[in-house]
């Protein structure tokens, strides 16, 4: 497959802490670049030596702004190793020098939107797009053929690793992993009707509709939009509790599991909530300091929930996860909550601090990093590294999404952020009180602090959003 673009990023800021964090994150991220046979990939890191479906397509897409080859391979290795029945490996390892797909869990699905954006970043290779379409179509078919074992119209999770919720108490006695194509028997909770697995299908179908639009197949686009809407309708009618303003999974006997989980935010990442559903969850729960908006926000389980546990080792029963911070960016952007991103970024920057040790989990009450997360002290955990780099890009720099460029002018510090993408340069210069955007050295706009400017690839301003409460969307001045 052809790749038309090469990429790199440079960033200088007067914020000493952020400069150290970004420089260290870039250096340590390079340690997570590995060869799987002759393929360069970005592994999860921090003791996790594979590429995992829950992290590494998303991580690869984020890192593609620095190394496009690894970003592409982090998508292709999952597509190329799809089974004949449509199942995508939950992880891909390199064992004894050989690429080894593993099918003993789903391990999340941070894949469709990331893989589609890589199509744009690589220069719109039609063969890649065809492969992505086939992969998603076959996987969606697999889900509905296999993962609705009781025929109630709601897809199921069968083990803890299906949704990447290691040690989560809400799973009860469910197995950690599961390789069979029939659900485990004799468990108290699973097979569990799951907002996550339903969202896998929604995200697949939504992306299939987008691919169909790119390929100018209007009939097929309409088909996949309707199919996606059916999934969203089932999530709303079966898993959403309108009195609580949140989604809850159901156990094998269809009983509602009342644990208040951050999985609602995950559903927002997959875009499977309606806008009113997202508004209610964000306003009533995500921003509630008694639940998810703690000193270090985004615990996996609301801190006032009976199943919350503040466990410092790899455990999704409580502590704030770096992976949740990574997913939160797209989740919030999907529903217009861009102004929360700088708040979360600053929280993460301060929690990591000048020691620049990048770990998996953080205490939601003290923001202390949990340094022991596998068999020893942890560092170089990819989702923490990439979260720092991506929050910096969203707040002070540039993000390319499809055929648009997003410029973040949080302000408060002097900074220069430059994204090289093929033969194009996108540079954002901030003086603390305002910003100037340049394309290939030509100024295309000026803006005040606290906004997100959206332009086309030609520099034409398409829109402006607030990135802070004081952001002035009227401050933009086009300079074409």
From TrEMBL:
UniProt xrefs under InterPro entries: 6-hairpin_glycosidase_sf, 6hp_glycosidase-like_sf, MGH1-like_GH
Pfam family membership, one: MGH1-like_GH
Domain Mannosylglycerate hydrolase MGH1-like glycoside hydrolase: from-to ranges: 78-369
Superkingdom of origin organism: Bacteria
Residues passing through the membrane, by range: none
Gene Ontology terms: biological process: carbohydrate metabolic process
Protein name: Trehalase
């Amino acid at each position: 497959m052809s790749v038309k673009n090469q990429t790199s990023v440079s960033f200088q800021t007067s914020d000493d802490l952020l400069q150290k964090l970004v420089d260290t994150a870039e250096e340590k991220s390079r340690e997570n670049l590995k060869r799987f046979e002759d393929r360069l990939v970005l592994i999860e890191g921090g003791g996790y030596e594979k590429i995992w479906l829950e992290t590494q397509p998303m991580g690869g897409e984020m890192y593609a702004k620095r190394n496009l080859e690894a970003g592409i391979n982090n998508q292709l290795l999952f597509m190329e190793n799809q089974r004949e029945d449509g199942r995508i490996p939950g992880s891909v390892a390199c064992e004894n020098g050989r690429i080894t797909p593993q099918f003993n869990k789903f391990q999340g699905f941070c894949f469709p939107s990331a893989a589609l954006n890589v199509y744009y970043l690589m220069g719109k290779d039609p063969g890649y797009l065809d492969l992505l379409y086939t992969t998603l179509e076959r996987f969606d078919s697999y889900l509905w053929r296999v993962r609705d074992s009781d025929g109630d119209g709601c897809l199921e999770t069968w083990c803890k690793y299906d949704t990447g919720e290691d040690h989560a108490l809400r799973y009860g006695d469910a197995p950690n992993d599961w390789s069979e194509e029939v659900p485990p028997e004799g468990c108290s909770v699973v097979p569990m009707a799951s907002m996550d697995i339903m969202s896998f299908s929604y995200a697949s179908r939504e992306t299939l509709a987008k691919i169909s639009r790119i390929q100018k197949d209007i009939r097929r686009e309409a088909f996949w939009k309707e199919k996606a809407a059916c999934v969203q309708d089932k999530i709303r009618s079966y898993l959403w509790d309108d009195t609580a303003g949140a989604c809850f999974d159901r156990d094998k006997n269809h009983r509602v599991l009342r644990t208040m989980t951050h999985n609602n935010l995950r559903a927002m990442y997959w875009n499977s909530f309606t806008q009113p559903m997202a508004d209610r969850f964000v306003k009533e729960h995500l921003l509630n300091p008694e639940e998810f908006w703690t000193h270090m926000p985004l615990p996996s389980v609301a801190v006032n929930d009976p199943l919350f546990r503040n466990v410092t080792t790899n455990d999704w029963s409580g502590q704030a996860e770096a992976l949740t911070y990574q997913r939160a960016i797209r989740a919030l952007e999907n529903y217009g909550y861009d102004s929360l991103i700088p708040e979360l970024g600053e929280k993460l920057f301060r929690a990591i601090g000048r020691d620049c040790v990048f770990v998996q989990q953080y205490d939601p009450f003290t923001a202390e990093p949990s340094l022991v997360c596998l068999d020893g002290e942890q560092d170089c955990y990819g989702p923490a590294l990439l979260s720092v780099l991506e929050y910096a890009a969203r707040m002070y720099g540039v993000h390319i999404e499809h055929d648009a460029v997003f410029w973040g002018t949080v302000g408060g510090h002097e900074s220069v952020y430059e994204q090289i993408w093929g033969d194009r340069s996108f540079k954002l210069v901030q003086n603390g009180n305002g910003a100037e955007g340049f394309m290939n050295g030509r100024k295309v706009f000026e803006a005040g602090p606290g906004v997100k400017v959206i332009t086309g690839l030609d520099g034409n301003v398409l829109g402006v959003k607030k990135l802070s409460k004081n952001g002035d969307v009227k401050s933009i001045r086009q300079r074409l």
